[in-house]
Every structure is written in C-alpha cells, then in structure tokens.
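Q: Hi! First time doing this. I have a protein sequence and I read that you can turn it into a structure. Is that right? Here it is:
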Amino acid sequence: MLKRIGKYTVSFLQQPVITGFGSVAGGKEAQGPLGKNFDKIYYDHRAGQKTFEQAEILFQQEALVEALSRSGKKAEDIDFVLAGDLLNQCISSSYGMKEFRAPYLGQYGACSTMAQSLFLAAMTVASGASRCTAAVTSSHFCTAERQYRMPLEYGGQRTTTAQWTVTGAGGCILEDRGKGVRIAAATTGIITDLGITDMNNMGAAMAPAVCIIRP
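A: Yes, that's right. Below is the predicted 3D structure, encoded as structure tokens:
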C-alpha cells in the first residue's frame, strides 16, 4: 500500500525490507573512509577483463550475487530487476543482468540512479506487484571518461575541479517481509537549472542539492 504525502513524497504503509546487499569497488574507492565496508575490491581497473566496460559488467553481476547470497534468495526468485549505469543504452546493466534471466527494467538517473532504483523497487514491493525486486547500479571511471569527456588514452590534462566517477557497483534485494532496513518513504526532486556552464565542475551543480529544501 502507498500513500502520497504532499506533492513530492510517497509513504509506504507496508514498508519494503532490504534483505540483502552487495558492493564492489575499485582501488581509489578502497582508499576512502568506506574502504573497509566493500565486499570486494579490484585494484585492476579491468578486473581481469579485456575492456573497462566488461569490468563494469562484472562489477554489477558480483554485486547482485552478493546481495542474493545475503538475502538467501536465488535469481529465479526475482520478480523484477531494476538496474542502471552511466553508459549509452544502459549497456553495462543490459549485459550484466542478462545472465540472471529476470524481468529487467533499465534505469538512468546519473548520480541518482541507485536512489531512483531503490524508490521504484520499493514501489513494486509495497504495491504488491512484486514479492522480491533487485536494485543494482554501477559506474566506472574509465568508461565514464570515455563517454562524457575524453578517453584516458588521449592524455588530456584534467582541471582541478574535474570529478572522479566512482568505479564500482552496488546491489540490493527488496522484499515484502523479512529482517533488515526498511524503506519508509521516498521524496522525488525536481529539475533545477543552477546556471553552471563548466562541464568540468559538476560538483558546483550537484552540491547545492543537499542543502536546498523546498518549502
């Protein structure tokens, strides 16, 4: 059951439960404050694969496998899998989730993809449309650089404000019952143009989102 609160928030009367989760990260992420919390770390950007894109596919698969293991579920138990990444046609998700043979809905929200996937996954569970939904998201610094800025092979100089896209993936299993963190409600934002024109300074465009509260 769902209940709308105001214009932007949906409350889940029967709160979906995150019964399993998994994470994979790269070497740079391992150096950060969350480094000890990742389930698997790859210091090789290709993770033993031929391309960066294939490595990102592997990240998604391993994150979901770990989440399934923690939840005690199998791939055939998944009613929906909502997965996304930063690449054209959600290519990492499409190839990554293909092996699980679960009903697939591709997601693209850039930096908000995991939050969006969790929100929509929670809606499928809370509405009764699903008993078990997976939410998975990935990105890779090397694949993102190739698509959004310049291939690393080009050797271009990065500006001091240039962002580093996360190399890694995360996955969650949401169920209508069980033990774990519950999703009580979700609020959707609106598109706001802050007038930032420097493509290398994405932080300037995204940082205000954490401190702007709409009445």
